[in-house]
Amino acid sequence: MSAEENKELIRRLFDRFRSHDTSSLEELCHSDMLYETPEFDTLKGIDAYRQVFEEATRSIPDLEPTLEEIVAEGDKVFAIHRVRGTLKGDYAGIPPTNEPMELLVSDVITIRDGKVAEHREFYDVLTILRQLDAVDERPPRAAGEAQAPR
C-alpha cells in the first residue's frame, strides 16, 4: 500500500473509535495484531484491542479521540491524537470521578497487507492520574528528606 493509503486506513480506524464502533475492526486490523500501551503489557489479538477500547468507552462515555497529525513512510504510520472525556465509571482500578481528562498520545502503527498489524501508543500515565485526582500532585518524600517549598 502507498503512504496515502496507509494514512487513510488509520483515519478510518480513528473514525471508528470516535464513533465508538468496534463492531467491524476485522476490516481494518489483523486478527493477531499486537497492541501496546504504557498501562498494559503487550496485548495480542483484535479481541483484546476491542476489549480495551470498549472498557474505556464504558468508563468514559464521552471519550473523543481526535487525530491531529499523521505521517506515513513505508509500512509505518506515525500519528498524534488527543483524547478527551470524563471518567463516569471504573477504569483500570480508578473509581468514577466525574473529572474531565485530556491527553496527548503518540502512535506508531505498522501496516501489513493493508491492515493494522501493530499499534503502539505512548502517553504520560501520570498526567491521566493527576487529572482524575487519582494521585497526589507531589511525590511522597523519603524519610528524613526535607519537603520542598510550594
Describe this structure in words.
With 150 residues, the protein is an alpha+beta fold. It has one domain (3-131): Nuclear Transport Factor 2, Chain: A (Roll). It contains 3 helices and 6 strands. The chain has a 6-stranded mixed beta sheet, with helices on both faces. Strand 5 (100-112) and strand 6 (115-122) form a beta hairpin. The longest helix has 16 residues, at 3-18. The model has no long low-confidence stretch (mean pLDDT 89).
Task: Outline the biggest β-sheet.
Answer: 6 strands, mixed
Unreliable residue runs: none
Average pLDDT score = 89
Through-space gap between termini:
54 Å
Rounded to an integer in angstroms, the radius of gyration calculated over CA atoms is 17 Å
Question: Based on the structure given, which CATH architecture is correct?
Answer: Roll
How many helices in DSSP terms? 3
Q: Per CATH, what is the topology? A: Nuclear Transport Factor 2, Chain: A
Beta-strand share of residues: 25-35%
CATH class: Alpha Beta
Structural class: alpha+beta
Shape: globular
Helix percent reads 10-25%
